[in-house]
C-alpha cells in the first residue's frame, strides 16, 4: 500500500517549487507593468466577450466613459445604460439596509414616506439615464426593475411615477398592434400601482393609515368622503398639531387620481346639505334680526355634523369661488342649481360659518341689509312650506304681509300646526311692523294655551321695544305666566338651576308693568327656593308691602341674608330695589351685631357709610 500522507507532503513541496519558478520568470515582466495592472485587466481581454469583464464595473459614474468605447467594443449603448443603472441601484439598495418586503401595517409605517427622505441626486440621475435609452420598451422594463428593487416608501412611489411616464411614452409611440397591446397593459398596470402606493403615502404621511382607509386607496371618491368623516373635522377645539389637514389630503389624493377636487367638493357639499333638509328651522332667529352678527357663531342651524363638514370643506380653496357657489346653490344667482328651499337656506347660513360678514359683503357686493333680507325671506319660505304654502322669493317679497299673516292665522291657528302658525305670524308682525291688537292678543293667548314659554318670553322681551304694544291687555298675564313657569320647574340644587331662578327674577325687573304682577306669589316662590333676597325684592316692589311675609323672610337671620345677597348680586340686574334690600340687611347686621361678616366683602364701605348715618362706627367694632 502507498503511504498517501507521505506522498502528499512530497507532492505539495514539488508544486510550490514549480509555482515559485513560474513567478520568478514573470517577475521582470510584472515590474515593467504600470501599477494599475494590479487591479485592472489588460485592454486586449475586452475583445470578444467583454460583458463578463465589464458588467460588474459599470455604474452611473463611469457609464459615459464606456460609451466612448461602445463602437470599438461593439456594445449597445442602451445595454450599457441598463447594466450601469442595475449595478448602481443594487449598491444603493444594499446601503439602505431596508427590507423590500414591508407587508404589515406596522412595517409599512416605519418606511421612509417623506418627500425629504428621497435621495434627490440619485433619483434625478436615474431619470436622466432612463431618458437616454432609445428603446422605449427597454426603458419601461428597466424602470420596472428599479421600482421592484427599491424598498417601499417615497422613492418607490417616485419610481412608479417614472414607470407610468415611460410606459405612456411607449404606448403613444408604438404602432405595431401586439406591442401596442403590451404597452397598454403595462401602462394601466403601473398607473394603478402608482395611484395606490401614492395614496398610501398620503395616508402614512398624515398618520391616518388605518386598514379601513388603506382598503379604499383604489376608490378615491369613497376615500375622500371617508376622510371627511374624521372626528377632527367636527372638533374645532383640537390643537392644530393634532388635527390632520383633511382638505390638503383630499387635494393630494384627487391630484394623484387625476380627479377635479372642486367637482368632488361640490358633490359632497350638495349631499351634506341635502342630508339636513328635514331638520327644523328656528324661526325665532328672524326676530330682532338686526343682530345679524349672531349668525356667525351662535346659529344652531349650523350645529349639525354635516354643516360643520360643509364649512370645513369650503374654508379651503378660493373663498370668492366658494361664496359664489353657495349663492348659486341658494337660488340667488341666475345659474342656480335646483334645490329644495331648506337646502337653499342652509347654503346661505353656511356662508356665515365660512366667512365674516365683512368678507361676504365685499365679495358679493351686497349690503348688510340685502343679505339680511335675503336670509329672512328664505326663512319664511321654508317655514311656510310646513303649512303647505308654496312661495318663491319673489312672490313672498311682493305679497301683502298683513294679509298673509291673517290668512295663516285663520287657516292654521286651531289645527295641528298651531304652534308653527303662532311663530310665523308673530315673526311677520315683528319684521313687518304689523301692530294689530286683535292679532297680537290672539297670538299671546295661543302661546299661553300651548305652553310655548320660550317663544312667549322671546316675544315679550321684544314687545318692550314697541311702545304701541305696551298696553296690550294680556301682557301682565303673559309675564306672570312665563315667570311662574320658570320657577315651578326650577330648584337650586345646581348652579344652572339657580341661574334659571335668577333669570326669572331679572324678567320681573324687565316687566314694563311690575305692579300688575302677583308679587306676593312670586316672593313665596323665591322664599321656597331659598333665594330670600329675590323674595324681599318682590315684596318691596309691591304697591303695598306684605309685612307679615317680609318679617317671615327676614327671620332667617342677617348672615344668611347677606350671603344670599352676595350670591345674587352678580347675576341680577341692579335697580333701586337692590339698594332698599341692602339697607334692610345692613339694619339686621347691626341689630344682630354681626359687623364682622361685612369686613372682607365688597360692601364694607357701603356698610360703614350706613352705620355712620345711625351711630358711631367704632362702637360696632369695625375698623375703617
From TrEMBL:
Q: Name one Pfam family in it.
A: Rod_C
The UniProt entry's GO biological process terms, in alphabetical order, are: mitotic sister chromatid segregation; mitotic spindle assembly checkpoint signaling; protein localization to kinetochore involved in kinetochore assembly
Q: Where is the RZZ complex subunit KNTC1/ROD C-terminal domain?
A: 32-547
Select a single GO molecular function from the record's annotations and give it. Answer: small GTPase binding
User: What InterPro entries does the database record attribute to this sequence?
Assistant: KNTC1, RZZ-complex_KNTC1/ROD_C
Q: Which domain of life is it from?
A: Eukaryota
Q: Which residues form a coiled coil?
A: none
What Gene Ontology cellular component terms go with this record? Answer: cytoplasm; kinetochore microtubule; RZZ complex
Q: What is this protein called?
A: RZZ complex subunit KNTC1/ROD C-terminal domain-containing protein
- Source organism of the structure: Octopus bimaculoides (California two-spotted octopus)
